Amino acid sequence: MSQAAAIFDVDDTILKGASGLFLARLMLFDRGETVSLKEIGNYVKAYMDFLSAKNIDYEKLIESGLARFEGMTRAQVENAAKDLFDKYLSKNIYRGAYKAIKWHKEQGHRVLLITASIKFLVEPLGDYLKVDEIFALRPIFEDFEMTGKARKPYSYEEGKLELAKEYCEQNGIDLKDCYFYSDSISDLPLMAAVGHPVPTNPDRKLLALSLWRNWRIRWFNTVLPQGFEPEF
After folding, report:
1. Of 1, 56, 211, 217, which residue is least crowded by CB atoms under 10 Å?
2. Residues near 82 by beta carbon (within 8 Å), at least 6 away in sequence
3. Cβ 190 vs Cβ 197: under 8 Å
């Protein structure tokens, strides 16, 4: 068995949908959080800019996402994360992603999640899939309460490459022996660095590049049945 890692993006790669939008549904409809029309408009605009990879001020996008949790204790945010997983994430895990993770585990590969989402939101997903490490947005806590700031490097674009390189160096893994599954052209720095890029449900720009570079493309469609228990 080779010393290698399989790295997975989360939104639209492992999940059918985006964790941030599932979180918005949880806060608005399940928890009845009060949100102004201006906040909703700003969130939608930021998300559309993110999808189109245009005019992104990523630090402002982060602050906007973290603002909903500012002042909450670690226990409170962990409770929100559990609700998010139970009500949304667990019901939207691609069957193909699960099978890929299972295959990599059988090969003895380490399995990593790397996502621009907030770390505590995807930790229940990581526990469910029994991954080895999660790289995500790491909010800063002060006086046991969450702030609107996060530690750098952010797990986005070049930051994902930086975090993956550091992990591989610390664990004696060559990036050329690694796999990276992602749907987004924003993940190109890491995808171009690994030896086994796996464009997964690629967006339009990543699809065009993948065809040009002759990368193997994976398409995940169906999700795991409710109540499914992983067999790792």
Report:
1. 1
2. 124
3. no
The answer to whether 66 and 146 are in contact (CB under 8 A) is yes
pTM (predicted TM-score): 0.88
pLDDT at 136 > cutoff 50 = yes
Domain extent at residue 167: 5-213
DSSP per-residue codes, 98-128: HHHHHHHHHTT-EEEEEEEEEHHHHHHHHHH
- Within-domain flag for 111: yes
115's torsion region: left (phi>0), alpha (psi -120 to 50) or beta?
A: beta
pLDDT at 23 over 90: no
Instruction: Give Cβ neighbours of residue 229 (< 8 Å, ≥ 6 apart).
Output: none
Whole-number Cα distances in Å, 130 to 3, 40, 71, 98 = 18, 34, 30, 11
CATH number, domain containing residue 169 = 3.40.50.1000
The percent of residues in the chain predicted with pLDDT above 90, rounded, is 63
CA-based torsion, 74, 130, 93, 207: positive or negative: positive
